[in-house]
């Protein structure tokens, strides 16, 4: 990264200068606050009353004064328990004790009355809890307190798994958006990994024992929420207090505490074992002044690792072979060739083996009340993760590799209070991320073999089996991220202002090897046995090495916001945010590409148009907190995932060349490759070829924009009393400028159109049946410029994706520490292209009748984040005799499937992305073999697949048009606290994951529709200019499986 060392140094100096000159920063921006009105005993508002709040745990204090309406407010208070003192000269002083503030809470004190007749201090007990203080969050997010986090069953105790409790979440996707559109914030700074848009593959990025509060926010219109078009997942960590405390914990689960049979009654023989252990200590270094917290947590997980596991895939061998699309005999033959002829080590290649994952996390934090006006926070987080749980799609077990992740993060902050009317928060965060991918076996090329199997009932199936190396190993993903955030709060009368900036500079330093291993393709097992591949493909570095790619990504943000009470019961917030993105560092200029296609590779996209107005109204209808109406609307910018940026530097068409050999294919010497990878045809082979090979290129749109989402929602909630509420919500989102890639080098007009109306971009004369693969289109014949293969253009859609949703929920506070909630969400998401992150060569969208008409039909297809239905129930029982029970239940329908042809039939070289045309067996024009086989399929396939086919007769099957059946999961936890001495106690717990499966091995599973590819290409008919197909009569099979039950026991000692 030397090329950008000066940029890094200048940036660091700039951030340091801002930090030192500002003399201000923040501990934790939490969104928590206290507001209220002060009156005298004649009900007249008191202007100038002094309101002071003190955090009883840390000694943090701040104060303000009431305005002419008697109104006061505190914003962004550190979470904790507060005593509130309200005083005015000549009137009685009132002390409101023990007010608990959690993440996002807003305690509203509707009427504080100071008496003129009494002079002694009056102590008042306020029943304050998040159930009643969460008005700001109703309908816009789901919050989980620290106590709930400690009680609710989580298999790896990863706090981000709590996302699933949001009725609007679909895995890591929120409100129908792409998963990459989810923002992640820890203590007010981003902990999102830009490479893939998530947090980590480890069991957890930080121990749940250190998390104090957690929130999933989908419709918060605060301008401080940025770069999360789908929503933002927030968490804040615990801090030390004046009370020295600590805990030591351990959790364990193993085969004896897990399922013995699968849902088909087959015995589970693989090993399962988890162990987690750690400790946390916190307390005062100087009371009310300096506090610390340190923790360490380790999680080790042994799980089965499966590839073509016949014993796991169906009730019997015959059905398992059909479900997997291959017979055991054919798989054995492939393995035999690998071991006896190709020199692969003898070992298990299919079935199941055991692997062990390991997560280690250390955390430290110091909070320093420098004086009454300044609160300083310093924290450090370390993560190390080893993961052998990696397998190529359709790959055998020897394609396994290991990933190692190592992260460091340091944050420094200081909250400075200038006066009762203004304060500032500043955060500086520096984090490093490294992920290394390693081989477990010899480094060799990739191998692919097409296999057609005849099953015991006479039906056939075709699949492709992968062996050899992984496409992207070895690999290093690296980034160094500097973040600077500043928030200035100012109060003027009844107006509360916020001005801020949010900046993120990511120094990317990836070393990627995708496609550089070499790939040999075999048309059949016989060809594999004869070592006669029909194709060799490899991306070759012309200088012989693969250097790291360094790309700075600069994200800038500024914002302003005003919040006020238009009336005592009507709160208005309006704001404006701007986000800018600069992808710095030009890729190498490709002069030939510019000459042939008029496209420049050496671009520096700068998106400066993300102006985001936002507004939010909260109407307390009767000014008593019983009926609350909320409406909000605004624009939200999203965020990049960075692998396309890296590949724009690698795949510039100058430093690498792609060889795609279909004739005179080199004969692979697999045994030699096992000993010496350098013998794979490479640079010397490239230079020996008689013609210059075309290049594969990825180009960034010089006008590349960040996706921008408009959100609005309307909510109504009614509090029947202090412990029961219900609400209803409507949501609408539309997103412009979604990312996608298309091929600039594909001919704009098709060469011909097939009998089903499919546009094909290679001449029909190039397709024949002389060999087992000659009827398939060749990429070279569909090119505009013969100097290039695919020229992938990373750009934005010219259509918008949409999300429409509704949600109803009810919640009950059960005594002091119990809680129950039930919610149902209905949603529909359409128009989002499938690419979200990762290797751009896998960013191919599903093609219907015409590649270039994608925008006309793709905008109406279901998005990957679509979730038609979701039910969530959460129960935390009140404590009784030291016992407590917690339970979570989810039922949802959110997975979809598409129906494809197995091979590329348009000339774009992307197998399995051309949607199937659904021939009508009742139509006389349908080819006879398809008519017969289609009727056979309809008679035997699943009801879901049959309905999908019949509803699309005579049409191309829409992407994501098939809906998978509902799924459900019920988890349960029982905890017992045993008091030992004063604050010392032992806690015992048992967690059951998938309770129904524990009760009966046939229960707790779910059904999925598999083998959804409808056709196998068998040839080309020159007379009709159409491909010939064989129907997959096993398509649409129902397969039942489960996340099998496991029981974990845990023990924690705390004081």
Number of strands: 53
CATH architecture classification of the largest domain: Beta Barrel
Task: Measure the end-to-end span.
Answer: 48 Å
Quote the average pLDDT: 91
Gyration radius, in Å: 31 Å
Keywords: Carboxypeptidase, Hydrolase, Protease, Signal
GO cellular component, one term: cell outer membrane
Protein name: Carboxypeptidase family protein
GO molecular function: carboxypeptidase activity; siderophore uptake transmembrane transporter activity
Please name the defining characteristics of this protein.
five-stranded mixed sheet, 22-stranded antiparallel barrel, mainly beta, Maltoporin, Chain A, Immunoglobulin-like, 15 helices, Carboxypeptidase family protein, about 10% helix, globular, disordered N terminus, about 45% strand, 2 domains, siderophore uptake transmembrane transporter activity, about 1050 residues, protease
State the gist of this model.
This protein has 1055 residues and is mainly β. The chain has two domains: 31-128, Sandwich (Immunoglobulin-like), CATH 2.60.40.1120; 141-917 and 956-1054, TonB-dependent receptor, beta-barrel domain (Maltoporin, Chain A, Beta Barrel), CATH 2.40.170.20. β10 (169-170) and β11 form a beta hairpin.
What would your notes on this structure say?
Residues 1-27 form the signal peptide. One of its GO terms (biological process) is siderophore transmembrane transport. One of its GO terms (molecular function) is siderophore uptake transmembrane transporter activity. One of its GO terms (cellular component) is cell outer membrane. The chain is mainly beta. It has 2 domains: 31-128, Sandwich (Immunoglobulin-like); 141-917 and 956-1054, Maltoporin, Chain A (Beta Barrel). It has 15 helices and 53 strands. It has a 22-stranded antiparallel β-barrel. β31 and β32 (627-637) form a beta hairpin. The longest helix is centred in the N-terminal third of the chain and has 18 residues, at 5-22.
